[in-house]
Amino acid sequence: MSPNITLFIENDYEQLSRKAARIFADSVRTNPVGSFGFATGGTPEGMYTEMIKMQKAGEADFSQLTAYNLDEYFPIEPDHHQSYEYFMANKLFDAIGLPHDKRNIPRGDAKDPHIEAAEYDVLAIGSRIQMQILGIGNNGHIGFNEPSDYFRGATGHVALTQSTIDSNARYFDSPDDVPRHAITMGVKTIMMAETILLLASGEAKAPILWDALKGLITPLVPASILQMHRDVIVVADNAAAKHLAAV
Ligand code: PGA
Asked: Do residues 114 and 107 touch, judged by C-beta distance below 8 A?
């Protein structure tokens, strides 16, 4: 493993979630009013639950930070039950008492997604994100940067691949309801975060996690670019890390 990547292997999803929440809280403690990057998806949910517990127990204060989310479907109404704005409000932000003006998420109801993306990019880069939480898609995507023949640099309006649409269909009433596009922070924008906190859970992620951390750096596996980042913390459970641990 490259020396810029620190890998923590936890027994199971619960321990992974606790570990990730503690690492994140330690970072926030150094600068409670700093900017931090958030992710949606099934993987960080447990971490967010742990953060809420820490906030309520007075062990950490996440209420003063400024949040920047990676991505949002497009188009989608912000109050749609599958929008990422709704996800973050319900899974974390409301419970930690984060004021609405500190929640930055690309707007799924913007008039022009390209202008929205360009404005969001300026905002996210200007904020100097201290720690960016990431999940990894089964196809190696980070944010909604899908496998491609080039690394998408800036935040942009992107088409989702069939694999991502299929994977996210579980959250919608019908696969036809999954939006086909999104606004996502670009790879360059993500790489500008001071520290990356990458989470991976479950056996299904084991091959792609290996590809990302030990394989060729290629836009066909967007997460592989993280090998070039100066400070990556990976928290995986045994199942997701099984190929990594074997090497
Ligand atoms: P998941 O998604 O956490 O629901 O597996 C990860 C991702 O797509 O980034």
From this structure: no
Q: Is 43 in the pocket of ligand 1 (CB under 6 A)?
A: yes
For 35-64, write each residue's pLDDT tens digit: 999 999 999 999 999 999 999 999 999 999
| Ligand 1 midpoint to CA 150 (Å) | 21
Q: What is the pLDDT of residue 246?
A: 58
Catalytic residue annotation:
71, 139, 141, 146
pLDDT at 211: 98
pTM of the model: 0.97
| 41 Cβ closer than 6 Å to some ligand 1 atom | yes
| Cis bond before residue 75 (omega within 30° of 0) | yes
pLDDT band (50, 70, 90) for residue 1: confident
CB of 184 sitting under 6 A from ligand 1: no
Q: State the average pLDDT over residues 133-150.
A: 96
Maximum Cα–Cα distance across the chain: 49
Neighbours of 193 (CB within 10 A): 26
CATH number for the domain running over 5-230: 3.40.50.1360
Strand residues in 14-139 grouped as ranges (E): 35-38, 66-69, 71-74, 103-104, 131-134
* CB atoms closer than 10 angstroms to residue 7: 16
Pocket flag, ligand 1, residue 140 (CB < 6 Å):
no
Annotated domain spans of the chain: 5-230
